[in-house]
Amino acid sequence: MSTATLSNDYQIALPKEMRESMHLRPGQEFELVSSGPVIQLIPKLTTEELKAAIAAGIASGKGRPADETFDRLENKYRKQAEK
User: Fold this and answer.
1) pLDDT on residue 71
2) What pLDDT does residue 74 have?
3) How far apart are CA 49 and CA 51, in angstroms?
4) In tens digits, what is the pLDDT along the chain, a chain of 83 residues?
5) CA 74 to the chain's CA centroid
6) Residue 21 CA neighbour count, 13 Å, CB half
7) What is the three-class DSSP state of 14?
8) Domains, the chain, ranges and CATH?
9) How many other C-beta atoms are found inside a 10 Å radius of the C-beta of residue 14?
10) Can you give the pLDDT at residue 10?
């Protein structure tokens, strides 16, 4: 897991490996979604980028049921909250 630090100007720099693996670029916009103590940064995509991402996901093979994924994440965050 990567970490980042909030600066005195309330800015966060994303780690290089994350920027590169997600193909992020300077000036890219994000949607922010907060849920309790969690903040999600969701890159805004052009229609072409979104279509390509969907096609890549479909081509990657069989996915996992949503319930399985939600249960795994719920267990993960419950364990973190207990620490």
Assistant:
1) 92
2) 93
3) 5
4) 788 999 999 999 999 999 999 889 999 999 999 999 999 999 998 899 889 988 988 898 877 888 998 999 999 999 888 87
5) 16
6) 6
7) coil
8) 1-44 (2.10.260), 45-83 (no CATH)
9) 14
10) 96
* Residue type, position 14, single letter: L
For residue 13, give the DSSP letter.
P
The single-letter DSSP state of residue 31 is: E
Residues in the chain: 83
Per-residue CA distances from 10 to 3, 5, 38, 60 (Å): 15, 9, 16, 37
Can you list the positions of beta strands (E) in 1-83?
A: 30-35, 38-43
